[in-house]
Design brief:
It contains four helices and 37 strands. The chain is mostly beta strands.
């Protein structure tokens, strides 16, 4: 082929090359526009609510979920991964660690359109439980004020690393009581303190000649100073001395104290005032039978003039008996009140008074709270009723049936919705289901947190959920995130708000 022939061939093929190049550029442009469009469509919408702290959610979530904001570790100016976060005094405290980065606490204000960082503080290696306590957190032996991140106290005696809310004489572990919530340090999160002190009962670690106790119980103030102490000794059958406080909801600062050696039957013989360590002797009660109410405790008993006649026994917060009243055939059992959870209009957990509880037993109605969930006699593993109505679920065939939802469900402020893991289904093969939004009591699914790339979330405000997503760990997941799905790469924390119209 001559040079002339070659030039002629190139001239003939040039339009084809140009057409292919144009097609390639067009496809690339359309793809770029699609990605850009999806980012515009799926970009965070910001938070614009009224910042009302609540453990309930707004009925506005019936429209579904929108992403208010996303945060990366870089956004927060820290390294490592997010290990825990907690609402404290109206702010969010996040704890980061790992990746050869010093453990760091970050204080955040979530009330604006986007979160703002209030402070950062590096802490020592955390090998003991972390606590959310009033307006502060206690981390690595320091009390840190959440408003500004300042260290207000350093504990001379840090909380032990291996500690539990359950008495374990076999392993001789330290025992802890924080006024209600159970402490599981292995979870790595914050434990909420609801009493004026933390009670720690330390097992003896020296010979009898040096330590004349088997357990030494100390009440610790928030600044790490000792509030009070008492000694407990063990015998073959029971605890000698005051005993150990049970990890149950405190009533007016009092918790029942068990002297049972095995700590399994939980026989109560005294009540401890957490603030000052004062113990009030009482008759012996079965701890499982004690129902906390706003003004004391309730339990079943008998009338003194007729042992066969059932009675409702009312105790003061310190265990002193107040009254016994005849108990006719109740609509619900007294112990079923253990499985009633109610919230007031502000989204705070609400307990009835003894009089209100007595009325509920005979009527089955709960007029003393805005929203209540409860189980019935057939459902032992979750809640099956909301505001007196039977919760329903949609079965595999699309029909309706009675539903039992996990105890972790979150209700709406008006009782119209629940955010929950799916209702119990013996035929389900999903080992890691996500939380969904259901209409109540019909159980019709309205939305899923999977829509915004999340598995679960908790309320911070009634119209703002917060969650830590699983980071995309595959090329496909990252590609999907670039195309507009959530979460985006490296997101460590997300805020979710009700879906907006349009």
């Amino acid at each position: 082929m001559t040079l002339s022939d070659t030039l002629t061939s190139w001239r003939k093929s040039l339009p084809t090359i140009l057409r292919r190049l144009a097609i390639t550029l067009s496809v690339a442009l359309v793809g770029a526009l699609a990605v850009g469009s999806s980012w515009l469509v799926h970009r965070p919408v910001g938070y614009s609510g009224d910042a009302h702290a609540s453990s309930l959610i707004s009925p506005g979530f019936a429209s579904g979920f929108d992403v208010a904001w996303e945060l990366t570790a870089a956004d927060l100016g820290v390294g490592g991964s997010l290990r825990a976060y907690e609402e404290v005094d109206g702010r969010l405290v996040a704890f980061f660690g790992g990746q050869d980065q010093p453990p760091t606490l970050v204080g955040l204000d979530l009330s604006g359109e986007k979160p703002s960082v209030l402070w950062r503080r590096e802490v020592a290696a955390v090998d003991s439980p972390m606590f959310a306590w009033g307006e502060s957190v206690v981390v690595a032996g320091q009390t840190i004020r959440v408003a500004d991140g300042e260290v207000t106290a350093t504990w001379a005696t840090p909380i032990p690393t291996h500690i539990s809310s359950y008495f374990d004489d076999f392993n001789k572990k330290a025992f802890i009581n924080v006024g209600g919530d159970e402490v599981y340090p292995a979870d790595g999160g914050f434990s909420r303190v609801t009493s004026p002190v933390i009670v720690v009962c330390y097992p003896r670690d020296k010979p009898d000649a040096v330590q004349d106790f088997d357990y030494l119980c100390l009440g610790w103030n928030k600044d790490g100073t000792e509030a009070w102490r008492y000694k407990v000794n063990l015998s073959p059958h029971d605890l000698q001395g005051p005993g150990l406080p049970l990890p149950v909801t405190a009533v007016d600062g009092y918790v029942p104290v068990s002297r049972n050696f095995g700590y399994a039957d939980q026989q109560v013989g005294a009540f401890l005032h957490l603030a000052d360590g004062v113990l009030v002797e009482s008759a012996t009660y079965d701890a499982d039978a004690l129902v906390p109410v706003a003004d004391g405790w309730l339990l079943g008993g008998a009338m003194p003039d007729d042992p066969r006649q059932r009675a409702l026994v009312t105790l003061a917060p310190d265990g002193t008996e107040v009254s016994r009243t005849r108990l006719a055939d109740p609509f619900i059992g007294l112990t079923d009140l253990h499985f009633v959870k109610c919230w007031d209009e502000d989204g705070n957990v609400a307990l009835p008074t003894s009089e209100q509880a007595a009325s509920t037993l005979t009527s089955g109605e709960i007029p003393w709270a805005s929203v209540c969930v409860q189980r019935d006699q057939h459902s032992k593993e979750g809640f099956s009723m909301l505001n007196g109505h039977r919760l329903m679920a949609t079965n595999g065939a699309g029909g309706a049936e009675n539903g039992t939802y996990p105890l972790s469900l979150i209700a709406a402020t008006d009782g119209s919705l629940i955010l929950s893991l799916p209702p119990k289904d013996k035929d389900s093969t999903d080992k890691n289901p996500q939380m969904n939004l259901y209409a109540a009591p019909s159980g019709i699914q309205l939305a899923s947190l999977e829509d915004v790339g999340l598995h679960d979330a908790v309320p911070f405000y009634d119209d703002l959920l917060i969650a830590s997503p699983a980071r995309p760990d595959s090329r496909i997941a990252r590609l999907r995130s670039y195309l507009g799905t959530y979460p985006h790469p490296d997101t460590v924390l997300m805020g979710i708000t009700p879906k907006r119209a349009g």
